[in-house]
Each structure stands twice: as structure tokens, then as C-alpha cells.
Specification:
55% of the residues lie in helices and 8% in strands. By secondary structure, it is of the alpha+beta class. The chain folds into four domains: 82 residues, Phosphorylase Kinase, domain 1 (2-Layer Sandwich), CATH 3.30.200.20; 183 residues, Transferase(Phosphotransferase) domain 1 (Transferase(Phosphotransferase), domain 1), CATH 1.10.510; 143 residues; 196 residues, Leucine-rich Repeat Variant (Alpha Horseshoe), CATH 1.25.10. Helix 12 runs antiparallel to helix 13, helix 14 packs antiparallel against helix 15 and helix 19 runs antiparallel to helix 20. Its EC number is 2.7.11.1. This is non-specific serine/threonine protein kinase. One of its GO terms (molecular function) is ATP binding.
Length: 661
Amino acid sequence: MENYKLLQRLGRGAQGSVYLVEHKEDKSMYVLKKVECNDEGEANKAFKEAMALQELRHRYVCGYKEFFVTWDREECAMFVCIVMNYYEMGDLAKVIKTKRLKQEGIDEMILKKWLGQMVEALVFVHNKKVIHRDLKPSNIFMTKNLSISIGDFGVATVMGDARTRTRTTVGSMNWMAPEVMERPYDERSDVWSLGCILLELATCSFMDPVQISSTLFEIKQNPQCLEDILAELAHHKYTAHLCQLIRTMLRRNFQQRPTAVELIAFPYVKECLLLDPNSKLVEKKTIHSAPQDSLPKEGDAQAIFAYMAKNQLNEQAQKQALQHLKKKMDDDKFCISLNEAMKMQLIQVLETHMDCAEIQLNGCKILLRLIENEGGVVDIFYIQNMIKPVLVAMRSHPTSEEFQHTACSLIMALSADENAAECIGQAGGVQDILSVMRQFDSQADICASCCGVLWSLSVNELNAKIVTEEKGLKDVCNAMEAHNSDPVLLEAACSAIWSLSLEDDNVDLLSEVAITLIIESLQKHPRHMKVVKSALMALASIITCGEECAYKVISPNNDVSGLQVIVDTFKLHKKEVDIAESFCTLLLELSEYDDIMDDLKAPSMKLEQLVQSIKTSFQSNEDIVATCVSILSKFGTKVALSPRRPTSARARPRSAAKNKT
């Protein structure tokens, strides 16, 4: 301490006191942070760990001058002192406060500049095996040229709270990742904090400190909160690419969140990094000259891939090759198959040229055609390598309608394999599909494709839980309401609802919204077999959720008899075995509730006679007969018991949805 003159105390917090000091020899200004320790031994341990910060020499990382341990006589305590650079321009917290007072937004180009610098800084420190853990606007300092410098790699970073007398403040927790307080966590926790900072910078024109604090807390529990804010950002002229990046950085499951290094693969982040001519993380893309040799259009797949390998960095060559390959695969006269090496080379092309939407589009179309040609049977190793670049591409090109539609179709094809469906869910594919659905909510064909993917993925129980946690059922219902004249969408939506009805947390929305929408689908498309079949399956499963849901099915509102709609619709398809089976299962589930039997026994419905006729018409189908016998027994009809036990809609195998389509 003898080398420094204390000028003023800048603040006191949970992690110690902060002072503005002047070095007595060179008269330079520094910031000195004093962190109290439990005893001298722990202080020395903390000091040794803090010395690791001296290796953090980077233009976007706050410089550390020195560290030392001192005894404070007045406090009667040991302190570790950290001396760091002083930034007279302040920090991002000051910038945000100033903009809020003026209700001014920050231009996206400025955000991109700062984002690129922060990503570069995090990549650097993470490569040094250092995790910040307490990244927030007040820890990001402004230089005189208005660049940023990440600082305060202090107690939270290298010194444990138990070793030093510190604690995490409630304010700091706003920017902390959900997993930090519980562990395990890794460098992706800093990516969450960076996403929070980016969100706060983008919202400073319309959110005050209380609102943003509440928002940063709520997004850890409620994903819909984040979606609402991102929709507001779009109204304030921020691009879909920025919104998608924030969404990706704020994945609550840290295993689905990209690392700082993985962020570099995003074209938007590359643009941010390239704003700094001295960036070492990306090279400015050059316009390559035309390939020396021409594309072998008359050659086979091996010749085409040899050409692609020879010109692997030439974007134009890859475009031409993929376009030609896709055209040949679309031509029925050609039957092109790719060996494993070619498939892996194709995936490598997608990873190398992630910023080119055309390459991603044609690459995904080729992958989709390969899966179709191979009958949907794909090696799981190949699938695992394919999933990640496809999902990254979906996050990288959020506004490309054709690509997103194609990618959804590819994910749908992949998810037919149970192992692939699980891999997709673990990689964050469920959230990506929901993002596409929200981005293109006015496009019925894309929403239909997304509903189909959600249904297919939700056959996996873990994926169904993810969809539920992300409030995906609400998106499905919104799509049904917006596009109730589209039978393709309604069929897929009803199938998705069937799978999601097995999750208890969806019951309220099923009762309040979904049932009415399904009944309306039957009213609007009574002759569309696929809609009817999916709707009956969904309703049968929903009924098992409880008596309230069952009552809602038979009477969704005062003006409509749901039971009458269901019966009338069935009669239009009474010879169809799948529809008869679903209809009978629905009646069986209704009959489990004694109070509802009065409605089923109403003379005007003539359900007992209808079930008898179904039993007669499908007497060779043991499943239908067993279900009819159980229903008739509830009516008091004397019938011979069936040796087969009817299957409950809720007890059906989750994969039944796939088999029914």
C-alpha cells in the first residue's frame, strides 16, 4: 500500500472496497480493490491464485498492474489487494444509464462492435482456463476510443467465497447463468452473462432498471418472457439475426448453449469480429478467383466430390457443385448414392461455409434426399455429425424462409430414428424449431412443418418435457388458431398435442385452449380423414388428464356440443378402421367418469346402438371389439367379455403417434 496514494473510495460491495489511487512514482491513476480474507494463510492462497490474472494480457481485457497481501490495522484484517487499470470513461453500466435517461437506443452497429470485442476477450480468457463468473455491465469498461475492456476478474473468478469474506450480491445474480449458483458450470456461463448484457444494451430505450432486472430474473424460469422481449426488439428495428443470437446465448440448459469459441461459427458474430481489423479469430473472406478447372458435369459423384475437395475454400465452386449434385439427384434418371467419406465431406462443406445461405440450403436438400433414398435408415454416427451444423445453420440464417423450411423437413426425417430424436433434443433442436415457428408464424406451410417436427420429437419423453418447459404447446395452439383453414397444419398440430398431452404441466392449456381448437378443427374439416384421426387421438389422450378436461371435450362452450360434433364426424368415416379405433378409445375414456355417463346415455345420442354397430362392423379387429365390449358394459349391456384388455389412450406407447400417420 505504501506505493499508492488513496484518492477516494469509488465503492464498497460484497466483494470488497474499491478505491481510486495514484502511484507515487509515475503519478498514474489506478483502481485498487481490497478483498478481505479469513486469515493470513487463506490470504496467501488467494494471492497465489490471483497471480494467474497477470497472464491475461489482451487489448480487450483490463490490465492488472500488481497484487499484494496487506494487514489493515484499522480493520484488524488481512486483505488481498488487486491493482488494475483506471478507465476514466466509465463502464457499460454508465452508458446504459445515460441512454435510459434520454430514452435513446444504441445503434446495432455499435452493439456489433462491442459484441465482437467481448467475444474476442472471452475466447482469450477461456483459452487461459479462466471463467469470469460475474460478467455484468459494471465490469466492462470503456476506453478513450470507445472500445471495451472486460475487467474485474476478481474474487468470483479465482478466489472462492469461502476463502475470502465475500458473497454474491442479488444485483450480480441478474446476469449470472442459472447453473452458476448450483454447479456444474463451465465457460458457457459467461456466454449467458454476455447474452444478458447484450439484451440490456438493446432494451435501454424502453426498459428501466427495475424492468430489466425483473426480466433478467424471469427469463431463467420463463422462456416466453424472453420471446416477448425479442419481439419488442424487432419493433425497435433490431435485426432478426441479433435476436436469434441473444436467444441462443440465453439457452437455460448450459449444455445447449454455445461456448465463446463456438459463437465464432455464427455469421453474425463473424461480422462483429471483422469490424476489428486486428482480430485474430476470423479472416476477412476474400472473393476467390474462378476455379482453375471446370466442374465435371458429366462425371459421377466421386468426380464431383474430388472437385469440391480441390476447391474446398472456394465458395463459388461449392455453390456450383452442390447445385449440380442436387439437380442430378432430383433427376429420376440418375440414382446417386454417397459413401461415408462423401457424406462427411458434405457436412464439412456446410461447416466451412456456414455464412452462405445458398450452400446451406442445397446441402440440406441433398442430405434430405439421401435419407429418403436410404429409406430413413441412417447410421447414428453420421446423424450425430450432421445434427450440429444443421442446427447452427438454422440459428445463423433465421430470416431465410426456404432454408428454414428445408431444415425443418430434414430434422423431421432424422427424428424418425429414436436415437437421432434424442440427439436433436440434447443439442437444442426443440428450441430451434420453436424459434422458426415464432419467426414465421404467418406462414402456414412452415408452421405445419414445425408442428410435425414437434410431434415427431415429442415421441421422446425428454423432448416432450423440453417442449413443455419452452411453452411449445402455446405455439402449437397459436398456429391452429391462425391457420384453421389449413388441414395439413391441423393434422400435424393435433398429433403434436397428442404427444404433449402426456405432460402434466400442459393440462391447464389443454383444457383452456387446445380442446376448443381441436373441436373447431373437426367442425371445419369433418371429411378430412387425417385431421379427424389426429384430432380423435389427441382428444382421447386429453380426456385422461382429468374430469375437467373430459367435460370440456363434451361441451367446449355453451354454443357447441363437443360430443355431438365428435359423433357426427365419426359417422362420416365409420368404415375407416383407424378412425373407428380412435373414436372407441375416446368413448371408453369418457365412460371412466361416472358423472359423464349420463351424457353418453342421452337417448338423442344413441351411442349404445352406435357402439354395437361398430363392434359388429369390425368383429375381426380384436382391439376394437375389446374396447366396444368395455364401453357397452358401462351402459349395462350384457355382452360376452373379450379376452383382450382395451388399451388406454394414456397408456399407449409414445411411438404410436408415429405409426398412426
